[in-house]
Write a structure and sequence with these properties.
Rossmann fold, about 35% helix, lyase, binds 3-dehydroshikimate, alpha/beta, five-stranded parallel beta sheet, aromatic amino acid biosynthesis, 3-dehydroquinate dehydratase activity, single chain, 5 helices
Length: about 150
Amino acid sequence: MTKPVYILNGPNLNLLGQRQPEIYGATTLEDIKSLCDNHAATLGLEIAFHQSNHEGVLVDWIQEARVKGCGIILNAAAYTHTSVAILDALLASDLPIIEVHLSNIHQRDTFRHHSYVSKAAKGMICGFGAQGYILALDALKPLIAPSS
Ligand SMILES: O=C(O)[C@@H]1C=C(O)[C@@H](O)[C@H](O)C1
């Protein structure tokens, strides 16, 4: 039984498709999950896909991934720019971590240019919308320990 890739999504991403589609796209989170499921299967990977509006719930999933997962793909959404708690949970893990953002955060408000998550991530993919999650799976695959 291979351990899954934890794909974790932060606050307001449950509103994708309705929320500022000019910035975040028209693809719903449910559709993104389906895209990830299908692409992960082509890579021989399974996923555990979650979303929460609550910082501590995201911390709990990161801690769960540390034991039960083989890697983390994280779009922490607004918590990207504020959460030391999420950063500390990521730093407590030895798993490979890929940071994802639907939008290009470096083209946006200045407060969105800083990411705490980046201090723990192998790399970041931003600005490619839903495709960013597919790119993150491709980037993560070679980083996953063979024993996972
Ligand atoms: O582009 C994204 O996926 C990120 C999503 C959010 O909800 C914002 O708070 C971030 O600043 C950007």
